[in-house]
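Hi V.,

Quick status before I head out on leave. The structure for the redesign project is tokenized and pasted below; the design run finished overnight.
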């Protein structure tokens, strides 16, 4: 009876250990590589160096994917080599060894390695790309769903007319200015379009790995005579506009403002000295009424007038008396 219990306990321990080896998962590793490069995934845990009878006892599986992955090679040590990596090669790879501790005598499997592989690529296609056309311009909008693993450096947009005649040579692509659109921008205006015309627009993003996937779409401009005339008036001379004219106009305006400032300062300076002069004039003016209202007011210099002598002058001085009567000189 005791021996039977010991045997049962031993079998339970063996089964439990087998289950642990079959279900135990090692720590997930993460690797990031650029598209087009090669990568080797090790099937060896440095903390538990387990011998392999044969590389054919190693099974590599990409989790969540039933399809087989190409461009791969299993090395002698059980490692998996992936060549010319693409975006589709990203995922979690699991290395499983048949037989407990790598031995083929057991049917159990041991998960040796789990690696998450991320592949950096040029930016994928932009999301929600739309065009809102007017008569002679169009508004191009877009969103960024994924950068490809590296920050976007800039956007690039092009447009051209779509010809319905198959025999006619396609129109050349025209650049949407600026040539390199800021990575923070999500919309841009396209100018100098013809009304009632179908255009093809394309746009893509660029990061350090190069240009991304191109998104192309068509749009037809509207037809409105009033808007055409208004747009032509606004854009008239835009191509031949000389910035030197603008600089000269700004210089003239600034010079005029400077002259006005100088003139204003001069007037303010002059106005500050006028009150003292006006006070002197006011004192002189107040002196005259005092003389008129007060006949007794006496001032030798003010009451005596000197007449220049002539041929009939007797050199006598004319005197003004208190009643304002003037005494003329006696003629000889």
């Amino acid at each position: 009876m005791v021996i039977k219990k010991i045997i049962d306990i031993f079998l339970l321990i063996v089964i439990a250990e087998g289950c642990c080896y079959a279900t135990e998962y090692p720590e997930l590793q993460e690797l990031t590589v650029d598209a087009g490069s090669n990568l080797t995934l090790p099937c060896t845990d440095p903390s538990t160096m387990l011998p392999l009878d044969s590389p054919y006892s190693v099974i590599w599986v990409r989790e969540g994917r039933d399809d087989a992955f190409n461009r791969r090679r299993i090395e002698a040590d059980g490692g998996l080599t992936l060549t010319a990596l693409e975006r589709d090669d990203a995922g979690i790879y699991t290395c499983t060894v048949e037989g407990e501790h790598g031995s083929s005598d057991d049917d159990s499997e041991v998960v040796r390695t789990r690696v998450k592989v991320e592949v950096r690529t040029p930016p994928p296609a932009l999301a929600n790309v739309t065009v809102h056309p007017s008569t002679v311009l169009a508004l191009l909008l877009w969103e960024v769903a994924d950068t490809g693993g590296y920050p976007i450096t800039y956007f690039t947009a092009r447009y051209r007319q779509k010809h319905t005649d198959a025999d006619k040579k396609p129109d050349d692509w025209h650049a949407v200015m600026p040539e390199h659109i800021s990575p923070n921008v999500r919309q841009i205006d396209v100018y100098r379009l013809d009304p009632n015309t179908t255009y093809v627009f394309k746009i893509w993003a660029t990061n350090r790995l190069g240009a991304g996937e191109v998104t192309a779409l068509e749009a037809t401009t509207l037809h409105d005579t009033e808007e055409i005339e208004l747009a032509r008036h606004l854009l008239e001379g835009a191509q031949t506009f000389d910035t030197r004219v603008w600089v000269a106009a700004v210089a003239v305006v600034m010079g005029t403002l400077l002259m006005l400032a100088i003139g204003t300062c001069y007037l303010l300076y002059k106005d500050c000295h006028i009150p003292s002069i006006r006070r002197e004039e006011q004192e002189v003016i107040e002196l005259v009424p005092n003389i008129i209202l007060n006949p007794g007011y006496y001032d030798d210099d003010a009451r005596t007038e000197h007449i220049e002598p002539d041929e009939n002058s007797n050199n006598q001085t004319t005197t003004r008396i208190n009643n304002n009567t003037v005494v003329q000189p006696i003629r000889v």
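Above is the designed sequence. Confidence is low (pLDDT under 50) at residues 18-23.

G. will cover questions while I'm gone.

Best,
W.
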